[in-house]
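Give me structure tokens for this 366-residue protein.
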Amino acid sequence: MSGTTPPTSSDQQRRPRRKAGKKPSLRTVTDTRVRVEYHTVHGYRRAYRIAGSGPALLLIHGIGDNSSTWDAIIPTLAQHYTVIAPDLLGHGRSDKPRADYSVPAFANGMRDLLVVLGITKVTVVGHSLGGGVAMQFCYQFPRFAERLVLVAAGGVTRDVNPALRLVSMPVAHEILTLLRVPGVMPTLRTAARVLAAAPHVPGMPTTVSPKRLLNDHEDLVRVLGDLTDPTASAAFMRTLRAVVDWRGQVVTMMDRCYLTERLPVLLIWGDEDTVIPYHHALLAHSAMPHSELVTFSGCGHFPFHDDPERFTKTVMDFIDANEAVVFDPHNWRRLMSEGQRPEQFVGDEDTVEAVLDAIEDERSAT
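Here you go.
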């Protein structure tokens, strides 16, 4: 674990932790089969994976991805929880209409699906764009949120992989159209594998080595492969342009971090993330000093792919150690009335200054 600070007595009062040695009150189930089911909500078909039984666990994938990204961890989690992994609207097997693909709209979609499923309390796990959606969900619908897990989440600073900035520009439509040309995707896959396997050149900084730059190449090429479908490509572009422009990320969650004061928060980040830099984890932890930060050394943007066993254990240990928050409307009113308190940020001077810069940056606050 990296970048954490010991909880103060006030932290312990805000976030009750289970007594040491107490066994989790979870019911192990033998049926962990993953089922793909569908519900029509507001006229659009929503697909989702569901498995297991017990307390609800909502897994939200990133941009251009789909719920299959969680396949390596759902069976283990489903031994203890009811796992729901939706395909966001415009992604995977869900419908791809000309619709609102903003972060708040995705959060609304998660709420609507949970209502249809009859689920009123949930621990939310969000990856990348899904992390921003998870944070937004907890802000918009605090009565639903019991705990929050952010995995390489978007919405910290403007920094993002330059390729996403490029794709957000008007010329991107023509670039994505090339993916439909026969032979282009196999060529991209082969080129990525070759470059990722290239030996390190002496004297070349590790941060710019082919292997480092293509650390997440398998997953990124997989996402690109799904964009050969025109409707998926159009939905991807609408989603991307809602959160990224040529300057980087345009949506921030930093000005709302203080609202998680009583919400148990876990941050998971790979220190070799080439999509959303690892230092974002340190800034998010500084802005949410009660959070726990777990660093996956040597892992990239998809730590649940690089080390699924450790990932599932980390999440389950976090849930077991932290009692679900109970929504308190009076406290919520107090928090929103008082607002952010920078004096509570943790970390060295440079980190705190970077957090303040991120908050004061002129980006959309959803």
